[in-house]
Amino acid sequence: KKAFSRCVIAPPPEEKSTMSPTTDLLTVKCEGMSSGGRYNRHSLSQARWQSEYLWPLVRAELARLADTTPATTPKALLLADLGCSEGGNAGSILSSVEEVLVGSGSRPRVVVWEDLPSNDWNTVVSVLDSNPSLRVATRDPLLTLPEASSKITSLLAEPAPTSATPAQPSVVLVALSFYSQVLPTASCPLLWSSTCMHWLSAPGPPLPRSIFPGDGPFRARAASDPAHEAWARRAAEDWETLL
Fold first, then answer.
1. What is the pLDDT of residue 187?
2. 77-82 and 190-192 beta bridge pairing
3. How confident is the model over 195-214, as a mean pLDDT?
4. What predicted TM-score, i.e. pTM, was given to this entire model?
5. Phi/psi class of residue 186: alpha, beta or left (left: φ > 0; alpha: ψ in -120 to 50)?
6. Phi-psi region of 133 (alpha: psi -120 to 50; beta: other; left: phi over 0)
7. What is the CB-side half-sphere exposure of residue 99 using CA atoms within 13 A?
8. DSSP string over the chain
């Protein structure tokens, strides 16, 4: 997930002069995600997908929560965004969430933004600082589940505001893989993830003559390809782990 986003295709060093891309293996060297807001500047297609497809699903779940939980309840609402990256798109959908929640009452909100420790958290904090409607609860990402659970639990226990002005949502940064537990047990009624579920917890074996598992030639031989079976098995296991 997200730690490896820039891939450089290169032949094995000993075969650079003779390698045929149609018969030999290609190796993919993965480099860490660029920092300094690069992903925020180059993720417009992800933002469009999020707005057109993810947001309607999140909005429907928010409506369901509003129907089943009184807005006047003193208990804070915990939400989470898995794979927040540099915060640009995560901030966009959170703004939409806030428009719905503030319109339905002043129930306190705690929002967890999760990504790997190697994420560009400095850019995330700068995105949060640029939005005065958000309260940054942790300027440094929490690196362990006990740390995260303790902070989240304490924020959820804070009393609801007594004024008519809706409270700012508290954003907690958690630097853990979403293939491990990142939230207190049985605490979060709604979480979402935008453009992240294709990242696996670990790579499979090299893929012969193919870089992307979804291309035509790969699909044609997938049924009998041991490498494909290994990747598919890893994907299924990761999906079950996440759920």
1. 92
2. parallel
3. 74
4. 0.77
5. left
6. alpha
7. 9
8. --SEEEEEEE--GGGTTT--TTTS--EEEEEEPP-TTHHHHT-HHHHHHIIIIIHHHHHHHHHHHHHHS-TT-SSPEEEEEE--TTSHHHHHHHHHHHHHHHHH----EEEEEEE-TTS-HHHHHHHHHT-TTSEES-SS-B-SHHHHHHHHHHHHTSPPPSSSSPPPPEEEEEES-TTS--S-TT--SEEE-SS-TT--SS--S--TT-SSTTSHHHHHTGGG-HHHHHHHHHHHHHHHHH-
Q: What amino acid occupies position 144?
A: T
**Partner residues linked to 10 by β-bridges:** 27
Q: What does the pLDDT read at residue 143? A: 95
Question: What angle separates helix 121-129 from helix 88-104, to the nearest 10 degrees?
Answer: 40
Pull the structure tokens for residue 118. 């190697």
49-95: pLDDT as tens digits: 888 888 899 999 988 887 776 655 557 889 999 999 988 888 889 98
How many percent of the chain have pLDDT more than 90? 33
Average pLDDT in the chain = 78
Identify which has the larger pLDDT, 179 or 24: 179
Cα angle: 181, vertex 182, 186; to 5 degrees: 75
Asked if residue 119 lies in contact with residue 33, where contact means CB atoms within 8 angstroms, the answer is yes
Residue 175 CA neighbour count, 13 Å, CB half: 15
